[in-house]
């Protein structure tokens, strides 16, 4: 008896759209990361990218629980000595609201070349318009 494994040619990728308006950030990110990895499919394989494309709209209207709106801080490093930079969530929401969701989802994907490939299938938009209507994305409920 042989074990069946998924091949790149066998994968048919779907497109899903998630409305982030009044959705809690962590729950939305968990759902999106699961779809990007392909864990919702019966032919899931951890060594292959068998996930679907995810479009997130209304990223500027995502909710956070507790006091994260005032306390959460994002850190990044420039690569130079002493080059750590910090940005409060409040400032991030004003300047780049899509990075809030991108950061949450990226942290739930594998930290290897396969995870970086999965991350490329994520599209996040601050408002309710997106240029992927031709792919006929299916709406996904985050509840």
Query: The biggest beta sheet, please?
Result: 4 strands, parallel
Distance between termini?
Answer: 41 Å
Strand order of the largest sheet: 5-2-1-6
CATH homologous superfamily identity of the domain at 13-64 and 95-140: Ribosomal protein L13
Helicity level: 25-40%
**CATH arch. level architecture of the domain at 13-64 and 95-140:** Alpha-Beta Complex
Output the number of helix runs.
5
What is the C-level CATH assignment of the domain at 13-64 and 95-140?
A: Alpha Beta
Mean pLDDT: 95
What does this structure look like?
The chain is an alpha/beta fold and 143 residues long. It has a domain at 13-64 and 95-140: Ribosomal Protein L13p, Chain: A, CATH 3.90.1180. It contains five helices and six strands; from the N terminus they run βαβαββαααββ. The protein has a four-stranded parallel beta sheet with strand order 5-2-1-6, with helices on one face. α1 (25-37) packs across α4 (98-106).
């Amino acid at each position: 008896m042989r074990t069946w494994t998924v091949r790149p040619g066998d994968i048919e990728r779907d497109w899903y759209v998630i409305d982030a308006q009044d959705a809690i950030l962590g729950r939305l990110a968990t759902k999106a990361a699961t779809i990007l990895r392909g864990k919702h499919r019966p032919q899931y394989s951890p060594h292959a990218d068998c996930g679907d494309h995810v479009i997130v709209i209304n990223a500027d209207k995502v909710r956070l629980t507790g006091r994260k709106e005032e306390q959460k801080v994002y850190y990044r490093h420039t690569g130079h000595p002493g080059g750590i930079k910090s940005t409060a969530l409040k400032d991030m929401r004003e300047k780049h609201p899509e990075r809030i969701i991108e950061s949450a989802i990226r942290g739930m994907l594998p930290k290897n070349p396969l995870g970086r490939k999965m991350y490329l299938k994520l599209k996040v938009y601050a408002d309710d318009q997106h240029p992927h209507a031709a792919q006929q994305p299916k709406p996904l409920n985050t509840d």
